[in-house]
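> call design_seq(struct)
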């Protein structure tokens, strides 16, 4: 019997240990990092690491076609590198995508490929990182978003309609058009770069003032995208000048109607800045082994009524009473999962559409604060919690 238990334990520990991506090393460089793009020489000295992006399945979209197209998404493997100098840090992400979908100006009914790099406003406590994707109350994030965009040109800045001409009237406008097209070529920008600060659901605000001096580019080549971002190590939103920082990556697939939360994302990933001294607890918190017995955790989840509110495994029925947990192990840290169980209101997941389904509210507002409708499981034995966390960490799509 003793033999059997230890064999089971060994299996469960391995199953969670193999899966996690490892930390990324940011290489210190001498070159200027103000305007870095994918063909920048310095990337040759960078160290690329593999990260896995999981389909975000937290909520069900109000879009039947999109839901069908994304029902059985597998995970995506991407290559990521980071470099830094005394004032800037830069990232490059390369990910496969068989179809190139391009943003059509500011249109909201076309969907494009793109990527985002996310930073935590505060990461002094690795157990309390912001909610992935949009931050949470008291835990802000900064998100840099870039999509490939068609070239646009507006003669006098925003919305200058008085200069629009009918392309068919070449006798009247031929010369103007030729000049206009030339001008588009010269000054038009294929750049969609945006930066946001977020502190939870509906709080995402675009940074439009001069405090945003990031620079991001995207390029499609050989059935894959290359995206780059360079930004200050320190600005008024985040301080990345540390031995280890948490970073998360997201990508969108326009061909699959991807937008907003319909994306692929990594969990918080540790980036170690080569040569910097300081606390490295983050590396262990984000990439260390998750202690616990996966098989017992699965049993505990079954015994505690989680499926009453959650779709837990992909084979379970959809359940609107709570977020789907089918990929929770992919984009969440073990500490986040534990916190969800013992203190559900610490981070409240942006709820199900309250207007459409008011009877399935994921939270109520009490005294101006969101209070989760999830049962508090802080009364469970530590071993049960450990096991559940270990099991939940295994819930994620495969890479195909
Ligand atoms: C009464 C319904 C209910 C039950 C029972 C319930 N949950 Fe939840 N759970 C929710 C709701 C609603 C949310 C979203 C609000 C929030 O963040 O707390 C949630 C959030 C979560 C999250 C965070 C999900 C994310 O996408 O970030 C996890 C993890 C979780 N639950 C796990 C569990 C586990 C494991 C159990 C069983 C031990 C369980 N829940 C039982 C309703 C429930």
């Amino acid at each position: 019997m003793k033999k059997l238990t230890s064999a089971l334990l060994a299996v469960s520990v391995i199953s969670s240990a193999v899966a996690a991506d490892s930390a990324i090393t940011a290489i210190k460089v001498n070159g200027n990092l103000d305007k870095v793009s994918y063909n920048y020489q310095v990337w040759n000295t960078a160290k690329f690491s593999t990260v896995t992006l999981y389909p975000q399945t937290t909520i069900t979209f109000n879009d039947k076609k999109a839901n069908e197209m994304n029902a059985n998404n597998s995970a995506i493997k991407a290559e990521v590198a980071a470099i830094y100098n005394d004032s800037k840090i830069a990232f490059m992400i390369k990910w496969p995508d068989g179809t190139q979908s391009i943003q059509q100006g500011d249109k909201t009914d076309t969907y494009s490929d793109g990527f985002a790099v996310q930073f935590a406003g505060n990461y002094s406590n690795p157990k309390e990182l912001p909610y992935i994707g949009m931050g949470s109350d008291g835990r802000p994030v900064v998100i840099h978003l870039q999509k490939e965009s068609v070239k646009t040109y507006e003669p006098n800045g925003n919305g200058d309609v008085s200069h629009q001409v009918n392309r068919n009237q070449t006798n009247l406008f031929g010369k103007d058009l030729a000049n206009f097209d030339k001008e588009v070529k010269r000054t038009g920008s294929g750049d969609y770069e945006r930066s946001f600060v977020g502190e939870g659901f509906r709080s995402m605000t675009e940074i439009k003032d001069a405090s945003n001096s990031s620079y991001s580019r995207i390029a499609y080549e050989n059935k894959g995208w290359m995206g780059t971002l360079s930004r200050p190590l320190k600005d008024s939103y985040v301080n990345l000048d540390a031995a280890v920082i948490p970073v998360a990556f997201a990508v969108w697939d326009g061909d699959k109607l991807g937008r907003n939360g319909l994306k692929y994302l990594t969990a918080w990933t540790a980036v170690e800045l080569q040569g910097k001294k300081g606390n490295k607890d983050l590396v262990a918190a984000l990439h260390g082994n998750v202690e616990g017995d996966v098989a017992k955790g699965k049993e505990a989840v079954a015994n505690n009524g989680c499926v009453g509110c959650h779709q837990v495994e992909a084979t379970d029925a959809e359940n609107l009473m709570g977020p789907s947990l089918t990929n929770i192990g992919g984009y969440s840290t073990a500490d986040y999962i534990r916190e969800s169980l013992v203190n559900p209101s610490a981070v409240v997941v942006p709820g199900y559409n309250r207007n459409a389904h008011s009877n399935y509210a994921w939270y109520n507002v009490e005294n101006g604060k969101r209070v989760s409708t999830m049962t508090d499981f802080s009364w469970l034995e530590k071993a049960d919690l450990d096991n559940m966390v270990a099991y939940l960490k295994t819930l994620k799509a495969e890479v195909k």
